[in-house]
Amino acid sequence: MRLSFIRPISCCAVSSSPSTSFKPQTPLFLRPPTFKTTLSDLKKWHLWAKSLASSVSSTFLKLDNGPNSELLLRELNWLIEDTIETPKSFFQETINPVSTRVCLDELYNLWKQRVEKRRPFQYIVGCEHWRDLVLSVEEGVLIPRPETELIVDLVDDVIKENEELKEGLWADLGTGSGALAIGIARVLGSDGRVIATDLSPVATAVASYNVQRYDLEEKVHVKQGSWFEPLRDDEGEFVGLVSNPPYIPSKEIGGLQAEVGRHEPRLALDGGESGMNDLIHLCDGAVSMLKPGGFFAFETNGDEQSKFLVHYIETKKQGNFSKVKMVSDFAGIKRFITGFRGR
Amino acid sequence: MEGMVQSSVPQYSKPFHSLPRNPTSVPIPRIKATHRRIPQLTSHSFLPSISSPLPSSMLLQKGGTVPFATPEVGVSNTETREWAMQDFYTLRKDVETVVERVEEIRGGAGLKQLQEDLAALEAAAADSSLWDNRAKAQETLQALTDCKDKLMLLHDFKAQADDAETIIKLTEEMDSIDSALLQEASGIIKELNKALDRFELTQLLSGPYDKEAAVITITAGAGGTDAQDWADMLLRMYVRWGEKQRYKTKVVEKSVGEEAGIKSATIEIEGRYAYGYLSGEKGTHRIVRQSPFNSKGLRQTSFSGVEVMPLLPEDSLDVEIPEEDLDISFTRAGGKGGQNVNKVETAVRITHIPTGVAVRCTEERSQLANKIKALSRLKAKLLVIAEEQRASEIKQIRGDAVKAEWGQQIRNYVFHPYKLVKDVRTAYETSDITSVMDGELDPFIKAYLKHKYTLAAKPTGLT
């Protein structure tokens, strides 16, 4: 049995300022356009990249539900958007030479990695567009998914009618890139705060970088450590808890889409045998962490897990929570469980 | 609730610029039509340059300098061009036609009413209480300017027609032909006809959203590759049309077909009156041809749907749609979703449940951004439909009627066995299918606008 990272063992020092040893990468679109490439060379690259994308057809789709040519071509356009200083004039061929943020060799290299190595597009460009944010991401950090965007809406809905929740202390457990913490911090009131935790030093470094880029250092504190460990000082003080914990059953990791299974951190995906080790741990811990009336929203692997967890809370945590329910994502999958700490 | 507002408005952080220190203060880009082409409808810009001493006094009645938009037509070819009697008769005929046309337009424009309006507006503008209500004052002044401009134009049309007529009469009285004079008359009517065309078209474009930019969505009908290829041909046609109008034309979304063509595409066309011109293009376009994808070359009929909506500025989308009336779905193709999948599928589809009106948005990189854009497109669509159905509220829209109207077959493009493009509504047709596919849509657009204008005029005429 592999070493479990999911137990709330405090194996890492709890620190309020994340490790400084790791320096996050700058996303491509934020790099200076210091390279010059002739229009014809760049067009040659574009043609090559397009045909590489087209050659994929639906191979990956059939193989592991990966991207087809159509999606790859969309990504290629976005790669151009992020790396060429004036993408429009490139397409209209009105400028020569073209200023780029990476050199031509690197462009070849990046696209090769994308198609041949199935390296996720977001790691290629170093960012993910999520809600109205552009978040820096890199290897070692889970790429935030569109489904998770909904948690911010769920939070927004509950704080609309509740001043205490709006101005209180929140926690994002296993923050990864910091997406949820940042999204929530931006809807909270002026006194609202978020503590974001993650076991991975890479994640905390990237999350801190994102927090800083959105100028939210005052509102979001990133702490390194396992789940509730870094939050002990504020036990019972939280008005809200959110998390997108690892929830994929261990045995399914191998069959995942290559972009996910081969490149994203297992730490952020693998939820143990049933996939629910961490979710159960979160439900257990929420009782003592939340203030009476406090809100929680957790993402799950979908219908089955959500049903199990609602049942678990209703039977094992009887009386501790109220209004526990499942919420569907836009694809109709019961993706989230939400509820309130009983008064 | 400051925070909330920020969260619900996308900042579309531009990937190629560094984020500013405080990203919450990123200005929100509005969907705004820029680079608008302004039709030259005011005062004298279309007047030809006049070199002959005779008619100039009649033309330059309002004083001031005349911006000569055209080169010196009057004198340019005087020496080289010899006027034969035949040419003179043709010219005389042209002048007669243009004089009639001017009379017709002046009659149709309601000159008397305009003059009364002008008097009333001038009185209102002179009123001392004018600026008590700032918004109303500006409205009045704008109306006054519009009214004056229109009267001035109508006056200019008459003045020019008179000039041309005078030249013809003079020539008839003289023994010899004065080439310079005739050349001038020829120039006058050429420019006058252009100005009249423009005037007429603008008169037809008086809908509340006609001046706005437009969004065209093309969707291939059933029938696989043939239909998808047809959708691609239509896409090219509209892009070419947009470019010819010198509108800013941008294909914002394109979903390519498996073998050839496209499944769907969205074009944004920015420019003054883009929506007004294009609004009549919505409906089903039908092609008949020998299938290039069938080895037997059988005759094949395919369809593609075209939808046109105005691209309205965010602040004009003053429509509240209750959340429960919206069915929002997004394409995360099958499977388990969540952490299991990493695909850039952020497309959002919103259906307005009471009417069944649906829109899709796939071009943005995040789901929220697509949702916001889709919602504003939906609002624009509902506004347009409400206006078409003369409904004062979204609630009153009849969903069944929308489906029937927006899906109606409007035009046939026959490539085989003969060549013909024919509009089902106006019966306007041409056999020059190549030009049409090259974006030569103006005759169709004009015919439709006239057709629509006549239809609209009928009920009011009866009451």
TrEMBL record, chain A:
InterPro entries, per the entry: DNA_methylase_N6_adenine_CS, HemK-like, RF_glutamine_MTase_cyano, SAM-dependent_MTases_sf
Pfam families xrefs: PrmA
GO annotation terms (biological process): methylation
NAD found in the keyword field: no
Highest taxon of the lineage: Eukaryota
NCBIfam families: hemK_fam (TIGR00536)
The protein's name in its UniProt record: Peptide chain release factor N(5)-glutamine methyltransferase
Species per Swiss-Prot/TrEMBL record: Anisodus tanguticus
Automatic annotation (TrEMBL), chain B:
Stretches assigned to the Prokaryotic-type class I peptide chain release factors domain: 332-348
Gene3D superfamilies: 3.30.160.20, 3.30.70.1660, Release factor
Segments for region (Disordered): 1-26
Entry similarity comment: Belongs to the prokaryotic/mitochondrial release factor family.
Bias (Polar residues) ranges: 1-11
Recorded GO MF terms: translation release factor activity, codon specific
GO cellular component, one term: cytoplasm
Protein name: Prokaryotic-type class I peptide chain release factors domain-containing protein
Keywords carried by this UniProt record: Protein biosynthesis
